[in-house]
Amino acid sequence: MKALMLAFLSVWATTCWAEFTPIKTEVAISGDSQITETVWRAGVAPGGSYDQIQVHRYHKPGKSSAVLLYLPGTNQNGEIALTDEDHNLWVYLANRGVDVYTLDYRTHAIPSEGVVDPAFARHWTLDRFVEDAELAAELARKTSARQKLFVAGFSRGVTYAYALVSRSAQSSIAGLIALDGSFKQYREQPWQGYEGALKALTDSGRYISDLAGRRGWENRHQLMMQTYSDSSAAALDPKYATIGEQLTETLYNAWGPGVLANPKDGVSRVEVLALLLDGYDRYFPTIQGLQGRALAAQNNDPRTTVDDTWGSFEIPIIYFGSSGMNAEFLLSGIYSASHSGSGKVSIHVLEDYGHLDVLVGEQAREEVYDPIHNWIRANSQQ
User: Fold this and answer.
1) Does 244 share its domain with 164?
2) Same domain, 290 and 340
3) Would the pTM of this model clear 0.85, i.e. be above it?
4) Is residue 255 domain-shared with residue 188, that is, in the same domain?
5) Using CA atoms, how far apart are residues 365 and 358, in angstroms rounded to an integer?
6) What is the pLDDT of residue 32?
């Protein structure tokens, strides 16, 4: 009965909250790939200026072997920044017959300049973004004429992926792919400071975080663009010999040595990282930081329904975790998968990888993409 109710609510949400309109269909990648991109846009509740989402479909002509919905990480979106299958999981899978759908969160609708009042983001809760993911999942099922789909997420997108599975009928999900993220922390310890933190956020009015940092958004863009255009060019900071060296050091040390990415040891290339990062969205709702922490701290957060069936999952799960992130982060990713209830969990720990290296590292094709493809093939036959 609960599964039927979840399925009904999902369909009701699609018909009542949003109507997707196709806005573009074109060849995204030519040559041997011939991958076509179709983009849909929909307005979503509560109907503000930036309350809209987009779904991208990356599809190669011919019959699809499986359908995948990919949920990006914080500040990421569903547009292709990297077009080669050595550095883009979507392109790699689409070339092998997987029908790939990616989601642009509401953050993608915010202009990078001219935002004065961030109050619009006070309602951009974790639950609301999961509802948006449900809409994308229904569009993928309808367009591909398949009831079951695989759900993948990277970083914060892993939280959305688990939540989407938790709110879905298990018969509608083929499997879950978790890329360097988690749903629950490995030691349950409910966070007592949530209400105080929420009040402080409300009092401050700082409803969005800004990725621009102290350098400014345009300077960030110039650093990325000049690096992927010619990494041997002169640095913007005179203490570095080249702009490639400057960005290498910046990314390597951003969250601690090798945590965000490890271009210094050649795990990833700085030019590839620059292309990826230049496509990021500038803003993200700060309230989700509080909600994500509260959700992760206990196995069933009473403030939300997005985790009510976690612990009784029946679907296969494959997890990839970078060793560069701290031990608690890695253990929480493993815990989220292994305590989900699934009897089919595959764990992959990637040595010397930083967070972004899981997506675009020089060995990611062999150590991440290939295992995912083989896992999708194996679980598509069931």
Assistant:
1) no
2) yes
3) yes
4) no
5) 10
6) 76
Same domain, 194 and 216: no
Q: Which pairs with CB-CB distance under 8 Å and at least 24 residues apart come from 330-336?
A: 331/186, 332/182, 332/184, 332/185, 332/186, 332/296, 333/158, 333/178, 333/180, 333/181, 333/182, 334/186, 335/182, 335/184, 335/185, 335/186, 336/158, 336/162, 336/178, 336/182, 336/183, 336/184
Same domain, 121 and 13: yes
**Are 237 and 306 in the same domain?**
no
pLDDT of 12 over the 50 cut: no
158-212 tens-digit pLDDT: 999 999 999 999 999 999 999 999 999 999 999 999 999 999 999 999 999 999 9
Give residue 123's domain range: 2-207+280-380
Cα–Cα dist 354/270, whole Å: 13
Residue with tokens 């296969």: 316
- Together in a domain, 266 and 343: no
Place of tokens 């960030």: 220
Q: What is the C-alpha separation between 38 and 49, in angstroms, rounded?
A: 23
* DSSP at 184: S
Of 237, 259, 278, which marks where a domain is finished?
278
Which residue, chain included where needed, has tokens 């993608």? 108
